[in-house]
Amino acid sequence: MHRNGVQKRIVAISAMLLFLSWGQTQAATFVVAPDYDDRLIQATINRASDGDRIIVKSGNYRENLNVSKRIALVGLDTGPGKPVVDAGGIGSAVVISAEGVTFEGFEVTNSGKLWKDAGIKVISKDNTIRNNIVTKNEYGIVLDGSARNNVIKNYVCQNDVGISLYSSERCTIAENEACNNTFGGILLSRSNNNTIRNNNASLNRWAGIILGESSDNTVANNIARYNENQGIWLLRSSANTVRGNRVRYNDIFGIRLFYSNRNSISSNIVRNNLDGISLENSNGNVLAGNNLSINDYGIYADQSFNNRIYMNNIVNNQNNAHSWNSTNFWNSTEILRYTYNGVAYRRYLGNHWSGYFGPDPFGDGLGDIPHTVSGQERDYNPLRRTSEMYTLRG
């Protein structure tokens, strides 16, 4: 009996020690507020450990933060607004150098004016930047040499550049407001395999979305309106997908390709620009399924070759198309299977043009007379009706 009692005590003590040890490894939560003992965010970061959470209440925190630990920084609006991180005009307000950080719920402002001084600068991987207000910085949010970061639902306006990616890959930029910036809304430079989706990049002084020397990115379902030069600009960029965007009321270009090759531009609504889609020294791109209307020029091609342009609705522009020193395919280069009026066909398919009334003797939805595009350029298989009436199969 005595031995059994000793054994029971040993087991109980071991279990208690294991419980205490386990409890000591759990993440801690810190609370920062202007009238608390913990009133400095950086000092609290320095005390924290990986996995901890820091909740910051409303107030003005004039600090430059270096988030060098895998923690969650959560701004809490306790009445007067989101907590404000103010860089005081020097450097970046927030630098995230650790991996796996969450930064959400803050207002971030007043960075320095040097190149890449930012409201929020990320130089690491696997972070989430969410639901922040980032204004009056040189750069709003910068991802620099980073990967797999998520920038979601931020208001990034009234900076020089809103959201910037430099040499960054596999990041997602989604559902942000990137407007009223003095240069651009969203800028990618030498950044590949990123997703830019469901953002509003409007009212910027130069362009809404810019891809510079960047490849294999997807730019999808964004709004780019009222920018002073171009809605979406691809500059020396290749193999990108630009799909399902609404690009309207930009002063010059809706979607501009400049020395950019092998991109896919599809299913965009491009209206009320000077040029709907502009191809300048750009080759081998595919323009398919776009709605181009009420532009001065629906498609403007200048020294561009071997682009495939088909299944677009090019209607009610002052000039539906212009081609200068260019040779392109204004219809598909392979036979497509489609259904029209409930009947299946196999044909090459062109574009739907306003002002085209060629006959359709075979009832396959294609005009029997080629449409003159510009100069010697011809659409040999113009669509009699809008492309939505043709269902591609396979």
From TrEMBL:
Pfam families: Beta_helix, NosD. SUPFAM superfamilies: Pectin lyase-like. Gene3D superfamilies: Single-stranded right-handed beta-helix, Pectin lyase-like. Pathway: Protein modification; protein ubiquitination. Keywords: Repeat, Ubl conjugation pathway. Residues 56-166, 168-302 form the Carbohydrate-binding/sugar hydrolysis domain. NCBIfam families: para_beta_helix (TIGR03804). This is NosD domain-containing protein. It comes from Candidatus Methanocrinis alkalitolerans.
